[in-house]
Amino acid sequence: DEHYEVKMEAGDEVKGFSISPLLLLPLVENAFKHISHHLEKTNFVHIRLSAQACNFTLEVINSKDPSPPKNQPGGIGLPNVKRRLELLYPGKHQLDISDENNIYSIRLQLNLHS
Q1: Which of 17, 50, 54, 108 keeps 20 to 30 A from 71, CA to CA?
Q2: Looking at 36-40, 70-74, 102-106, which range is the least confident one?
């Protein structure tokens, strides 16, 4: 509805390389799972893919409610992604997570040079 906004940007340079299958999916899923439910302002998910030289970057930003829902157990998605990154891209990745009051963002950078 009019209170939700989804934007995705992928530059023309995001092609001609491969990354581990399903690595990005949990990061995008979490944005939709934890999106805010404001009635008075826009709730959003913004996804940006870019590549430069041998570096790939994924940025996922979503609005979120200031307080997490009570009695909601933590999932295994993010810990699994972190472990997969350690195994598949040792020393060749950077994962930055920011959890502010109303915004949650993830920035993943992969060095694809072998």
Answers
A1: 108
A2: 70-74
CA 46/CA 35 separation, integer angstroms: 11
Alpha-carbon span 64 to 50, nearest angstrom: 24
- Return d(Cα 31, Cα 3) in angstroms, integer: 16
Per-residue pLDDT of 30-45, as tens digits, reads: 999 999 999 988 999 9
pLDDT at 69: 58
Q: Which residue is associated with the tokens 């810990």?
A: 79
DSSP for the chain reads: -TTEEEEEEE-TTS-S----TTSSHHHHHHHHHT----SSS-EEEEEEEEEETTEEEEEEEEE--SSPPTT----SHHHHHHHHHHHHSTTSEEEEEEE-SSEEEEEEEEE---
Cα(18)–Cα(6) distance, integer angstroms? 25
